Amino acid sequence: MSPRKDALAEGWLDVSVPLRDGMPAWPGNPPVEIGRHEDMSKGGDANVTALSLGAHTGTHVDAPVHFLADGVAIEAMDLQPWGKPG
Ligand SMILES: [Zn+2]
C-alpha cells in the first residue's frame, strides 16, 4: 500500500487540493500556469513540465512572517505539529 493509502487507512484526512493549470489564485497573486516546457511528441529531448504560481496556491501553510514583519519563516518552524506523531 502507498504511504498515502496507509495514512488514510489510519484515519488521516487528505484535505490537499491538487494543483492544476488555471486553478483559482488569491486576488493579486500570480496566476497558476502548468504546462509542457519541452515535449517529446514535438521533438523535445524529454518531457519537461513548467510551473508558475504564487506560494499561496492550493493547500499550503502560511508562516507567521507572511503577516508579521518579524514573524517566524516557514523554514524556522518546528515540523512536529504538522506531521504524524512518531
Ligand atoms: Zn497563504
Structural features, described:
The protein is mainly beta. It has 1 helix and 2 strands; from the N terminus they run αββ. A two-stranded antiparallel sheet has the order 1-2. Bound molecules: zinc ion. Zinc ion (ZN) binds next to loops. The site of zinc ion (ZN) has 3 residues, from loops.
Features:
single chain, two-stranded antiparallel ribbon, 1 helix
Write the layout of secondary structure elements.
Blueprint lengths: L2 H7 L23 E6 L9 E5 L34
Antiparallel strand pairs: 1-2
The structure holds zinc ion (ZN).
**Main sheet record:** 2 strands, antiparallel
Q: Tell me the count of domains.
A: 1
Beta-strand share of residues: 5-15%
Rg for CA atoms: 17 Å
Report how far the terminal alpha carbons are from each other: 19 Å
Tally the beta strands.
Answer: 2
Strand order of the largest sheet: 1-2
Ligand names: zinc ion
Question: Roughly what percent helix?
Answer: under 10%
**Count of alpha and pi helical runs:** 1
- What is the mean predicted local confidence, pLDDT? 90
How would you classify the helix and strand content by structural class? Answer: mainly beta
List segments where confidence is low: pLDDT < 50 over at least 5 consecutive residues: none
Dominant shape: extended
Helix-strand topology string? HEE
